[in-house]
Automatic annotation (TrEMBL):
Assembly description: Homodimer.
Domain Orotidine 5'-phosphate decarboxylase: 5-233
Domain of life: Bacteria
Catalytic reaction equation(s): orotidine 5'-phosphate + H(+) = UMP + CO2
Record-linked CDD domains: OMP_decarboxylase_like (cd04725)
Sites where the protein binds substrate: 11, 34, 61-70, 124, 186, 197, 217-218
The protein's annotated pathway: Pyrimidine metabolism; UMP biosynthesis via de novo pathway; UMP from orotate: step 2/2
Active site positions, chain numbering: D61, K63, D66
Species this protein is from: Fundicoccus ignavus
Record carries keyword Lyase: yes
Protein name: Orotidine 5'-phosphate decarboxylase
Keyword Lyase: yes
GO cellular component, one term: cytosol
Role, per record: Catalyzes the decarboxylation of orotidine 5'-monophosphate (OMP) to uridine 5'-monophosphate (UMP).
């Protein structure tokens, strides 16, 4: 998956909306696309195969969270779709994370690269209060994210989903190679719409904090001009990335 490009979250309610969105882009342009639950529940593996066949790089964001046997067998099936990245919830525990890895390796066709496997730490919609009151966590949100990242790394996965705000600490603790995939991206403007996200940052700040990939949905899909919004976000992300590498 090309780290220079944002991953566009394809969160649409119908196939017609998805089709109309994709047709806005020049034919043949390769995109990083995220197929989440909405689209997968609507059109399943067939849609994924079509997007892969069109040359796009796909993050299949199904956030598996079940017993190890179920996750392993499901990953074996998903590995055959030709996607670039899949994920699970780190809260599923080490045996489940390891089973996910085993399932992916078992299902990857001979000679192909297995998809990157990442684990969600704490959803970017989660707040400090929710972690304390509903998860009854003994530690704060940042420490919970850091701990889930550590567990994920020890289980042999490629990285985590976290907010950009936590990416820097995770890279410092677990090394440059351990990937941070960060949703919760919003453009700086006076009327910034956080929607249901709570831990947010701009593309530039995400790059400065060490994100490897940004995931962007509504700021692109609901923009008056989605392609212009995508180009603006890509340009901001790439410029800030280049600065961190200089
Ligand atoms: O912690 C998480 C994990 C996944 N997501 C997904 O990313 C996109 C974000 O969409 P926006 O419209 O840019 O808010 C969405 O598909 C989520 O399912 C996340 O936001 N946070």
């Amino acid at each position: 998956m090309n780290q220079q490009l944002p991953i566009i979250a394809l969160d649409f309610g119908t196939m017609e909306e998805l089709q109309a969105f994709l047709e806005l882009f020049p034919k043949g342009e390769t995109l990083n696309l995220k197929v989440g639950m909405e689209m997968f529940y609507l059109n399943g593996p067939e849609l994924v195969r079509e997007l892969v066949a069109a040359g796009h790089q796909i993050f299949l964001d199904l956030k598996l969270h079940d017993i190890p046997n179920t996750v392993k067998r499901s990953m074996t099936i998903l590995a055959q779709l030709g996607v670039a990245m899949v994920n699970v919830h780190a809260a599923g525990g080490t045996p489940m994370l390891q089973a996910a890895r085993e399932g992916l390796l078992a299902g990857t066709p001979a000679g192909a690269q297995p998809p990157l496997l990442i684990a969600v730490t704490q959803l970017t919609s989660t707040t400090e209060a929710l972690v304390a009151q509903e998860q009854l966590s003994r530690v704060n949100l940042a420490d919970s994210v850091a701990h889930y990242a550590q567990v994920t790394a020890e289980a042999g996965l490629d990285g985590v989903v976290c907010s950009p705000l936590e990416a820097g600490d995770i890279k410092s603790a677990l090394g440059r190679e351990f990937l941070t995939v960060t949703p919760g991206i919003r453009l700086a403007s006076n009327d910034v719409q956080a929607d249901d996200q709570h831990r947010i940052a701009t593309p530039a700040r995400a790059a400065a904090l060490g994100s490897d990939f940004i995931v962007v949905g509504r700021p692109i899909t609901l923009a008056a001009d989605p392609v212009a919004a995508y180009r603006q976000i890509s340009a901001e992300w790439q410029a800030a990335k280049a600065q961190t590498q200089a």
